[in-house]
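Annex B. Sample input.
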Amino acid sequence: MKRGFFILALLAWYNVPAHSLQKVIFDLQRMLAEHHLMITSPYEIHPLADGNKKGITCNDNVWLKGVDFGYGTIELDIRGRNEFLHSFAGIAFHAADTSRNYDVVYFRPFNFRSADPVRRTWSVQYMSLPAYPYDRLRKENTSQFESEILPDPKPEDWIHARILIGKDSIKVYINGMNKPSLAVKNLGKRNNGMFCLWADATTVDFANLVVTNDQ
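Annex B, continued. Sample output.
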């Protein structure tokens, strides 16, 4: 899909001034109320308000209906859970469908401050499914597609993520840091596709989503 589709879909939901068509602030609560968010049954989405964090909480992947993303920047606030192997929080993009045929940047909050230094290096991950799942990347490209976050956030806290997706690279900046926590080669084969808030059957909070589509 072309950028024009991205813009037209958004204009159906928001009054976006012409000079800022490429940058969109998503009102996740409004999208939920107007049925523009999709989750597979029996999983659920609920509105969430936590101070200045106005968004949603969910327990699986949430797809944004009618939104096509190519290349650009994704910013959002994310809060997972400090539950070992039961909290995976991030975004999926360039999806051909909803069946694990997409690229993912995600976080493992339970590793942020682990006493095990190896586990801390598994805090933020990029993978491209189905060809490059995390275990293949970890085996064949050790420490190249996942990294520690410094300074390390508290596992139970909100983090602000700024994710730059280019044709050749993926960069992930956390909590306003100038140095990326993760900078990797883009392994994906698609130039655009569906977009989702990725929870992988775990409970995650999302808020303040802003997307700039440069395609």
